[in-house]
């Protein structure tokens, strides 16, 4: 498929041929869901923790004699039945991450790119270069109509563009290796440089 290439000032810069293997697939929600879930689970901290009866700070002395009280038998005040005692089977520090085959992760990225292309939310620009001035870049972005956009550059993101984009709400830039399904789907517009297209084709071939 062929797509027009534009400059940041809105001018035309020719066209580019996009690979059907990357941008021409029929997007599948089940694949995208599995990859996004894998990403978000890996990002989850999993630092929730409660104290068990061996970790609470009460005495371990037997609170009253075993027999003859008319009440239930108890060992110490750390039992879960008492206020301030340990929690039974509560959450502990753990990883929420799970494995997902590398081929499936690649497939998910292809489907995310194809989803943006099919929805008409894919823009190809000649390059992502700026003078490092936020005001100038913000004006260009507003003129192009990008409200929530992700820019994918080549092997390394342009340092001046990154600096200028840092304070623009809704605009993010990633190098090709940082491109991921969650960030692509989260934005309304996906912007890829010509260098980014080449790098993505090399990464996902």
Portion of residues in beta strands equals 5-15%
SSE string:
EEHHHEHEHEHEH
Shape: elongated
- Please, how many helices? 7
Regions with little confidence, pLDDT below 50 for 5+ residues: none
* Structure class: alpha/beta
Overall mean confidence score, pLDDT: 93
Count of extended strands: 6
Strand order of the largest sheet: 2-1-3-6-4-5
| Portion of residues within helices | 25-40%
Cα-atom radius of gyration: 27 Å
Distance between the termini: 17 Å
Q: What about the largest sheet?
A: 6 strands, mixed
Please tell me about this protein's structure.
This protein has 205 residues and is of the alpha/beta class. Helix content is 34%, strand content 14%. A 6-stranded mixed beta sheet has the order 2-1-3-6-4-5. Helix 2 (29-43) packs across helix 3 (102-118). The two termini are 17 Å apart.
What's the gist of this structure?
It is built from 7 helices and 6 strands; from the N terminus they run E-E-H-H-H-E-H-E-H-E-H-E-H. With about 200 residues, it is an alpha/beta fold. The protein is elongated, with a radius of gyration of 27 Å.
């Amino acid at each position: 498929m062929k797509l027009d290439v534009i400059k940041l000032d809105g001018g035309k810069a020719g066209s580019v041929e996009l690979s059907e293997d990357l941008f021409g697939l029929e997007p599948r929600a089940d694949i995208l869901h599995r990859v996004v879930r894998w990403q978000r689970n890996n990002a989850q901290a999993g630092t929730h923790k409660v104290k068990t009866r061996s970790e609470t700070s009460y005495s371990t002395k037997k609170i009253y004699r075993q027999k003859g009280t008319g009440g239930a038998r108890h060992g110490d005040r750390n039992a879960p039945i008492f206020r301030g005692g340990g929690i039974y089977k509560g959450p502990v520090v753990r990883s929420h991450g799970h494995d997902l085959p590398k081929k499936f992760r690649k497939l998910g990225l292809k489907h995310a790119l194809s989803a943006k292309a099919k929805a008409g939310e894919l823009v190809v620009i000649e390059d992502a270069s700026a003078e490092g001035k936020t005001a100038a870049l913000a004006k260009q972005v507003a003129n192009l109509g990008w409200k929530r956009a992700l820019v994918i550059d080549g092997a390394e993101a342009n340092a001046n563009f990154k600096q200028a984009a840092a304070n623009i709400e809704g605009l993010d830039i990633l190098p090709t290796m940082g491109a991921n399904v969650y960030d692509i789907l989260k934005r309304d517009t996906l912007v890829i440089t010509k260098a980014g297209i080449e790098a993505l084709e090399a990464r996902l071939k």
